[in-house]
Amino acid sequence: MTETLFERYKEALRTGHVAVLRGRLEDAAVAYREAISITADRAVPRTALGSVQLRLGDPQDALDAFDGALALEPDDDASLLGRAQALVVLRRTGEAALGYDHLAGVRAAHARLSDAAEAARRALAIEPTDERRERHARLVEELRTTAGEAVAEGAAAPATAEPADWEPPEMADAEPTAPEPRPDPEALVLALEEAAARGDAESAAAAALAAARAHREEGQVDAAFDACLLGIGVRPGDVDLHLLLADLAVDRGWTGQAGDAYRQLLRLADLDGDAAGADLVRRTAAARLPNDPPFAPR
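Above: the chain's sequence. Below: its structure in token form.
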């Protein structure tokens, strides 16, 4: 590639990234396609295009872009993850499970045991098999062993003993309360699929929202993203799902993307005359992005 072509490529890529940060996803897609047209041997713009297409609600185009990126870089983590997510939205569950299998193997090969275990868990949840159960259990055990060794190496200082006259505080004489059972995210995803199959978009979106929240409480941000995307695929205009998707972006540290999402939701609520919805978006955004002036209380 000549220097002039490379500069054009970099400028197209930069334009795409800036458009994403500004929430102009269609413009971003145009810029990334331009970058791809300038050079056919780079995976980055294809991966970026796939992510944008997934957010635009076009999982098939997203899948094509991720496949193009993986043809150039077969073990690229972002492309593998995006491809699996696109397959989930397309309900090609068998292929999605295989995609997560491969992602787990790539992450394990790079000693990313926690991420590998999460990818293996998602493959198991989508399509359970004995082989996947064994693989997930093996990765979890490796992760525990590694964590235990790290703790042992760091435990140089002896524990401080309690004073000889110390006594434990009195416990309140109360009947122990059984904890509330945790919702099963995978059962909720199954309920989502069943509701979608019978054309009940409202129930499907509610199940997706509950599944995403349950995954989030367990620290499984990627799985929560998947559940949100599934729900949005059934009910594209569901504000609660889009709001949670923005919250998950904040969880990942993607504050620019989250801010754009909150602003877009706020614009939509204002256009619809939905004062309560606009207030909910504004309060949520102000709590999650307190340094973002547009969401300061009015």
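The longest helix spans residues 130-154.
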